[in-house]
Amino acid sequence: MAYHLNECFKMFSLNSNPSLAEEMASLLGCELGKSSVTRFSDGEIQINLEESVRGSEVYLVQSTSQPANEHIMELLIMIDALKRASAKNINLVIPYYGYARQDRKARSREPITSKLVANLLEKAGATRVVTMDLHAPQIQGFFDIPVDQLLGVPLLAEYFTAKNLEDVVVVSPDQGGVVRARKLASHLNAPIAFIDKRRPKPNVAEIMNIVGNIEGKNAILIDDLIDTAGTITLAAKALMERGAKGVYACCTHPVLSGPAIERIESSPIQELVVTNTIELPEEKQIDKITRISVAPLLVDAVDRIHNEKAVSPLFE
User: Fold this and answer.
1) Residue 197 annotated among the catalytic residues of the structure
2) Which of 38, 97, 153, 215 is in the most buried spot, having the most CB atoms within 10 Å?
3) Exposure of 257 by Cβ count < 10 A (0-12 exposed, 13-18 middle, 19+ buried)?
4) How far is CA 298 from CA 61, 130, 184, 210, 267, in A?
5) Residue 223 DSSP code
6) Are 179 and 267 in contact (CB under 8 A)?
7) How far apart are CA 182 and CA 193, in angstroms?
8) Per-residue tens of pLDDT for the chain, all 316 residues
9) For residue 131, what are the β-bridge partners?
C-alpha cells in the first residue's frame, strides 16, 4: 500500500525499539530522522537533532519498556529538543506505555504513576499519543491531548484463525481480563472461560478455580501483558490438570522480566504469541515464542492522523 506523506512529515526513533521504527519507516516509504542519543560521563542523557524540524509534523517512536526510567527520560528530552527546534506537532507513538499498572490508589498513600507520566509527557510538549492496549483504558483520560489506543486482539485473532485449531476455548487468566477474552472469542467464534485467582502480593498469583468448560479443548490464554509469567504459567498448569487438550497463550506486550523465560520454557504452554511492541533481546527469543508485528497497524494510524482521516475504523 502506498502512503501519501507531505514535506512536513518526519519520523524519529529513540533506543527502546529501533527495529519497529525501521519497519514502520520502510512501510511508509520514508527515512528515519537523524538524531543521536549519547551519555555524559556521569550517565546523563544528551540528545542532538541532526536535521531541521522547523514547522514539521513529527512522529516519535518509543516504547517506555524496561529500563522504563531510561526510556521515559529519553522521550522527555527528545520532546523538549523537538519543541525548542520549532516542530509544529509532536506525535508520540508509544507501542507499550509503561507504569500503566499504577493507575489508581489501591492502598493508602500510593502514587498514581501513570497519571504522573502522562503529565510529564504533556508538559514536555507532546501534542498527541498513539499507543496499544493500555493496561487500564482510563489512562486515556489522564491526558488532555488526543490519545489513540489501538488493539492487539485482532492481530492475535488473525494468527490463531490461520492455525485452524479445533475445539478452542479462550481463557482469561483473571476476572479483570474477561472483556478482552470475549473480544478474542468473538473473532474465533469460540466460548470463553476464566480463572478465579487470588493474588497474595504483587507478581505472585494463586490459582483458585476455573469457571467454564475447558475439558478436552485447546485453551488459548490471553492477557494484555506478561511480566514475570507467574500468572500465565500457573493458569496453564491448572488448565492441563483440569483436562485441557492443549494450552496456548498470547499477549500484546511481552515484558517478560525476571524468571519469565525460564517459567515459560518449563510450562505446559505449547506456544506463546506476542507482538513486537517491546523489542525482545536475543536471549528471550526462545522457540516457544512467536512474534507478530504491529508495524502495519501503527503505520495505518500514522497515515490516518497525518492525512486527517478517521482513526476509529482501526479500533473495530
Assistant:
1) yes
2) 97
3) middle
4) 10, 8, 20, 35, 32
5) E
6) no
7) 9
8) 778 899 999 999 999 999 999 999 999 999 999 999 999 999 999 999 999 999 999 999 999 999 999 999 999 999 999 999 999 999 999 999 999 999 999 889 999 999 999 999 999 999 999 999 999 989 999 999 999 999 999 999 999 999 999 999 999 998 889 999 999 999 999 999 999 876 666 666 565 689 999 999 999 999 999 999 999 999 999 999 999 999 999 999 999 999 999 999 999 999 999 999 999 999 999 999 999 999 999 999 999 999 999 999 998 6
9) 94, 149
Catalytic residue among 115, 197, 201, 217: 197
Find the helix or strand (DSSP H, E) in which 306 lies.
Answer: helix 295-306
pTM above 0.70, yes or no: yes
Indicate the residue type of 240.
M
Cα–Cα distance measured from residue 287 to residue 272, given in angstroms and rounded to the nearest whole number: 9
Helix H or strand E encompassing 221: strand 218-226
Q: How many helices (H) and strands (E) does the chain have?
A: 8, 14
DSSP string, 147-190: EEEE-SHHHHHHHHHHHT-SSEEEEESSGGGHHHHHHHHHHHT-
Per DSSP, the residues of 81-124 read HHHHTT-SEEEEEESS-TTTT--S-SSTT---HHHHHHHHHHHH
Cell output for 144: 488532555
* Residues sharing a CB contact under 8 Å with residue 233, sequence separation 6 or more, in sequence order: 263, 264, 266, 267, 269
Beta carbons within 10 angstroms of residue 145's beta carbon: 14
**190: Cα within 13 Å, side-chain hemisphere:** 29
Query: Cell for 72?
Result: 521515559
pLDDT of residue 205: 58
